Amino acid sequence: MSTPRPSTDPAAAFFRAVRETPMLSAEEEILLMERWQTNQDQAARERLLASHLRLVVKTAGQFKGYGLSTADLIAEGNLGLVRALEGFEADRGLRFSTYAQWWVRAAMFEYVLKFSTPVTFGLSAERKKLFFKLRGLKARLTGPSGNSLSAEETHQVATELGVRTERVSEMERLLAHQPRSLDMPVGESGVPYGELLPDDRPSVEEVLGERQELMYRRELLKQAWGSLSERERDIVTHRTLRDNPLRLEDLAQRYNISRERVRQIESAAVGKLKALVRAALPKAKTT
Fold first, then answer.
1. Alpha-carbon gap, residue 19 to 262, rounded angstroms
2. What is the pLDDT of residue 198?
3. Domain ranges (residues) in the chain
């Protein structure tokens, strides 16, 4: 009787490696992060990345159905994971996975918008919203029949999502048809199909402005975070920033206070953060 050979499929080997890589405890993560950030220890870097590949694989599963291979999504997610490691600030008291999941999802999100077959042209905010929401709303309104939206249903979708009705109709047509190459000539003129599609992308100035505004708001939030007490930061972190938030009872036992007191501290701390950020914004605009 022959002995089964191990699979030579690269994808199978990758997923097996992901499953077999142990997750890090909080203490292990802190030590590895310190080695990486202080000494640029490559072994620590690789260990941190490998232990979070589960997060990448799990996130890739959330983007199924857009005509893209899981391998490509994972590759993009890995790039997001690397960017997260480069920008992670351990002194904020967060687990790396909490911070990394935003970067991983953002990398896959941008990849889907850029390469998913129905949406190969410039994407405005309206189109982005419709691309990810229209399938579910249409299924809810038309049921298993899959019929085209009526004028009334189109208006209902537009109102619910806060977009124009013509954008709803446009996206419905795009999602209902097979992919079409942007280089394919159209009509007798032979003009490439891609040149006939409207491009609502923001200008370079708008993109830079949005990024600067985002960076500024993050800096404000960082300053506001520093104004909280250690207990407030701990409660907010464990109640709102963790993948698996602690229960009020857990924190009540930790600080020897009531569940209601924990809830009050959490609510007050979040309110303080919002108030400090709001108070700082007008100052920036008047300076």
1. 37
2. 46
3. 11-115, 125-196, 204-279
